[in-house]
Amino acid sequence: MSEITLSSITTAKGDLWVFGYGSLMWRPGFAFEERVPARLVGEHRALCVYSFVHRGTPEKPGLVLGLDRGGACRGIAFRVAEKNRADVVAYLRAREQVTSVYREVMRSVWLENDARARVSALAYVVDRGHVQYAGRLSLTEQHRHVVQGHGQSGANRDYVTATVKAIEAEGFRDAQLHQLATMLHGDGHSLHAPTPAEDR
């Protein structure tokens, strides 16, 4: 599906589905009616976004997640009541689009519940043309950025650890993120829970 206009998503009728694949999984920050495990096909979760604000600075960038092309991604679909959709979209834009590194799109996601329904959900896909697009980094490069990263929302390592814990809570693994978390744990630092602050 194509990118959406700024007005169409807030004026559309009916409930809104939002697909969370990173920090939205463990701290959505908005009211929702339903939370369902879901799968998006066509993009995958990757630490492919340099963080200049929430988990790093332009001088010492951290790394946060984006949906990048190819593969599939398991995450969480949140159903937002129609009456709240404009407020939730405004909140998500303020949170996710601080530097406009994402493309705001509607994607088909498959709900992994008894109904196994397909719904159209709001998702944030990385803009590959943006200066903060990191591309495919080696685990060593990812580790270096995450260790150095600290921004308005705190330490980058806490962001990675919280996401890994959220993935594990859903009963699956993300091989590369888990490997990075193991490396961070091996550094001897405490992997404490993140503070309730904004991400990205």
TrEMBL record:
Single GO BP term: glutathione catabolic process
Protein name as annotated: glutathione-specific gamma-glutamylcyclotransferase
UniProt keyword Transmembrane, yes or no: no
GO molecular function, one term: glutathione specific gamma-glutamylcyclotransferase activity
GO CC, alphabetical: cytoplasm
Keywords of the record: Lyase, Transferase
Species, as recorded: Bradyrhizobium nitroreducens
Superkingdom per UniProt: Bacteria
Entry keyword annotation includes Transferase: yes
Record Pfam families: ChaC
Annotated Gene3D superfamilies: Gamma-glutamyl cyclotransferase-like
Listed PANTHER family: CATION TRANSPORT PROTEIN CHAC-RELATED, GLUTATHIONE-SPECIFIC GAMMA-GLUTAMYLCYCLOTRANSFERASE 2
EC numbers, comma separated: 4.3.2.7
